[in-house]
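REQUEST
  id: r-88c1
  op: predict_structure
  target: Dihydroorotate dehydrogenase
  payload:
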Amino acid sequence: MEIDLSVDLAPGHKRGLLLRNPVMPASGTFSWGFEFEQHFGREGIERLGAVVSKGVTMEPRAGNRQPRVAETPAGMLNSIGLQNVGIRACIEELAPQWARWDTPVIVNIAGDTVDEFGEMARMLDGVPGIAGIELNISCPNVDTGGMEIGQSVEASARATRAAVRNTDLPVIVKLTPNVTDPVQLALACEAEGAAAICAVNTVLGMAIDIERRRPVLPRARGGLSGPAIKPIALRIVYDVAGAVRIPVIGCGGITTARDALEFLMAGASAVQVGTATFANPRALLDIIDGLEAWCAANGVTRLGDIVGCARPATVA
Ligand SMILES: Cc1cc2nc3c(=O)[nH]c(=O)nc-3n(C[C@H](O)[C@H](O)[C@H](O)COP(=O)(O)O)c2cc1C
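RESPONSE
  id: r-88c1
  status: 200
  body:
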């Protein structure tokens, strides 16, 4: 049986963002994609729906002091602090290599200010090898920008507007779960022209080293990811997908094809997989295989047909 796993993450947008399947890595857990290519070859990269880069900032960053990660039951805390090569190196050195792949690459950008989001979007516009932009208005591990912007409906809207105005590339806005009402944020970003919403970034958390009597992470707080946050992410996707008309990308704790199916049934059009790949580098490929096998076993010829099927209006 021929199964159609494809999804357009920017329907109606002038460029569109057509993926062969809805599975992609979560920003920051896949570096720039080259290690994955080394292990699984170009064929491996070209089985993915898309590649999402780690967060890029205007200037290169060294990131936070070590330790930057701490294990927790069913998840991990991280405080990387956006270590990266900066946007110029991204454009000049990384994009030409991405252009080799027949897989769309989405660049995750993190501005210090609303205007910087606009400036970086302008710089990425028209660069061969780049198919979309994801706005990281939700990083919990930096002093400026990041979650500060993503926790304000007004600032999130302004960051979206600044980026959308400056590029023909589809703009995905990535929400923080660390707010009372993510739906208001999503609606504001949609109104400003976001092509899609990604939900969610990490949940704020912390751990304490009782021997040192100090927080484990140098900035005390970190971002919790992995299976521990899956129910939170799923609830936010369910709520956001019920409110916006643009596609929603589910992210948070997805480890298996069954998890991915839960997000799709909640209303996500696609999924991102992060922490799971640290324990299983094949996780993305296993999830794609698992989705295909599930469709075959359940007589589903078009995966898109199950998107949102668990939502009230369609529950029998
Ligand atoms: C080590 C690490 C680095 C991350 N870096 C970024 C980043 O640069 N930009 C971003 O938007 N999200 C970043 N995230 C958040 C992930 O993209 C994802 O939203 C989050 O981890 C939840 O998904 P997961 O439970 O599948 O990991 C990072 C997460 C981890 C664990």
